[in-house]
Amino acid sequence: MTPVVDIHSHFYPDNIPDLSARFGGEWPGFRHTAPGKGMITLGNRDYRPVYEACWNPALRLEEMDRDAIDIQIMCATPLLFAYEKPAQQALECAMLFNDAALELCQRSPERLKALCQAPLQDIDASCREVSRAVRAGHLGVQIGNHVGPRNLDDEGLITFLQHCGEQRIPVLVHPWDMMAPERMPKYMLPWLVAMPAETQLSILSLVLSGAFERLPDTLRICFAHGGGSFAFLLGRVDNAWHNRDIVREDCPHPPSHYTNRFYTDSAVFDENALALLVNVMGEERVMLGSDYPFPLGEQKIGSLIKNSNSFNSETKSRLSGGNAVKFFDL
Fold first, then answer.
1. Running along the chain, 330 residues long, what does each successive block of 10 average in pLDDT?
2. CA terminus-to-terminus distance, the chain
3. Structure pTM?
């Protein structure tokens, strides 16, 4: 029987060291606020309330059992990427949390898996660290969708993706550091508006730049949150490619031609949206992803796929775990 695999979940240690004292400057931190609850901090500011599943693998396993999840793949909260920091500090941070993730997985190594992070401001160091982490037990790597002003079509980031393709290291692209925060100060609008836009931007950066022509077919790359706004707006992008030469100058095929080069998770929270996503991407290129254990994640993991009237049992099996088994070589 095909296992149910959640490919997109996060962790955050409650024993995070004082990185500000270690390196100087503003770094993520943590404080306990009540039994089983805590606050992620950034410098002197509160950033996000979280609960015990972020750091307690026993509770994570209990909630996986509750939702009938066989395997969960966890990755760091993107706040920990540290791309804006000096490269050596970011490398030490990556190694620290990569090792912490594997320590969490030791509670149940057959069911808990992890993706590493890498200091993408230094491509050589990133290639070394992702290879080290995979040898140590990580299934692949989670990266942000940009590094400062550099999108995924940046020459260095393409080199990193080429390395991952050649080494057959799966990549999960997660949006972070969202655009135009000064225009979205309330209501979590950066997460609701900018995050889907950031994800579409990262996909189109690879497509329209011609980067996919240079990346090996062995690259397995997945975009979180259902690929953001990509599927819904693909018709608009194809139309632009056909009618404006400045859109297609570096891209030899219509953007819809490239949907067989990447994957998305299923975190779209609506049956019609999921049906559209699967129709655009193909049922073999969408994988269950929950964004657990955050409030904007799927609260009963896997229920969107399981309860959908749009898919037969074979398609549901692929979306719930079959595609992930192949993508991650589980």
1. 97 94 95 96 94 97 98 96 97 97 97 98 98 98 97 98 98 96 94 96 98 97 98 98 97 98 98 98 98 94 96 98 98
2. 13
3. 0.97
